[in-house]
Amino acid sequence: MSRGDSVGAWKLGVVAETRTLTKSARSIMLDVPGWGGNIAGQHADVRLTAADGYQAVRSYSVASVGTGDRIELAVDRLPDGEVSPYLVDEVMVGDELEVRGPLGGWFVWRPDQREPVQLVAGGSGIVPLMAMIRSHHATGSTAPFRLLYSLRTPEDAFFREALLAPPAGVDVTWHYTREVPAGWEHAPRRLTATDLATSTFPPTDEPAMYVCGPTGFVETVARALVDLGHDPQRVKTERFGGT
Question: How many other C-beta atoms can be found within 10 angstroms of the C-beta atom of residue 159?
Fold first, then answer.
């Protein structure tokens, strides 16, 4: 079987471990025979089939990287979702899930990239960017890495403990839009062009920019980065939600 055929085929994964990330989000570790590893930034399709044969497919970014057949998905529950409520609230260790992937080759970071990397995440948009941070650490990359993580409240942070003590070579800036931690120097507010200018690499550094989050957030941030002088070809985006 060719690599392309393998990627496009549905595989049966077994839930190996789960853990709570936030009050509405969960990490799911899956053993997926034939997965074979993925590049940081890629995603997987998950398919659920009801007793009456109805099927629902959703795409989820992969938080893990490297070779092997174990992957980590990080899923945020959508109130009206068809798939995420089951994955967050009901799936158990030992359950089987149909998975297809790894998918995607544009919104990815490879360890042979040497330019500075600026990550900008909104909410659960941190997931593929976390894979990039993990890849940076695992491969010993010396490329400068910065993350600007925008959240509604501190309790909404995915991978909070890991990002409070990030790997060497990774700088993390936190931004809160509705509620801030005690003693925080700024009141909660929307992310502005000024925030981006002061908390990200300047255009003169020619960084690779990766922006992920809800559609409105991504469009606003990408537009502001281009207005600040960044080359549009260097600003890669991945979004979720309505257009």
Answer: 19
